[in-house]
Amino acid sequence: SIGESRVMKFTSNDGSSRGLTLPNGSVLIASRKAQDFWRHSIEPSEEECEERFSFTFRNISKYYLNSTCIVGDSNTRLLNFGTGQGTFGKWMPGKRIEAFHIGEIPEPEDIGPYRNIVLHTGV
């Protein structure tokens, strides 16, 4: 962050929030995991402020390009994520959510940050 100081607001998934002052020349590094639990923002100021420039650098790991969540009934029980024999392997991280009825399917925002969401339905 270059320029006038600003307060970055962090809001957790439980609704609690806190602020962090970012002075001129500050660097903030956030892990990928932090984004699962915190939202961040710099809210508009009521007062006139000096200029501030913010630079964002992101690295999207190849590891996350195939991240997948499978939602389904017992027919999906043999689909395993992780490493080792009988799994999708480390290049397809993800999770399985068991849902036997339509009402058990979670809302998309409750599933998580997956690139692919597969809904497996029985006949």
Protein described:
The chain has 123 residues and is mainly beta. Helices cover 10% and strands 28% of the residues. The chain is built from three helices and eight strands. The chain has helices at residues 34-37, 62-65, 108-111; strands spanning 2-3, 6-12, 17-22, 38-41, 52-53, 68-72, 94-98, 116-119. The strands form three sheets. Strands 3-2-4 form a three-stranded antiparallel sheet. A hairpin with a 4-residue loop joins strand 2 (6-12) and strand 3 (17-22). The longest helix has 4 residues, at 34-37. The model has no long low-confidence stretch (mean pLDDT 84).
Key terms:
single chain; 123 residues; mainly beta; three-stranded antiparallel beta sheet; three-stranded parallel beta sheet; 10% helix
Structural class: mainly beta
**Overall pLDDT metric:** 84
Amino- and carboxy-terminal Cα gap = 55 Å
Number of helices: 3
Given as residue ranges, the uncertain stretches (5+ residues, pLDDT < 50) are: none
Determine Rg (CA atoms, Å): 20 Å
Quick recap:
By secondary structure, the protein is mainly beta. It has helices at residues 34-37, 62-65, 108-111, and strands spanning 2-3, 6-12, 17-22, 38-41, 52-53, 68-72, 94-98, 116-119.
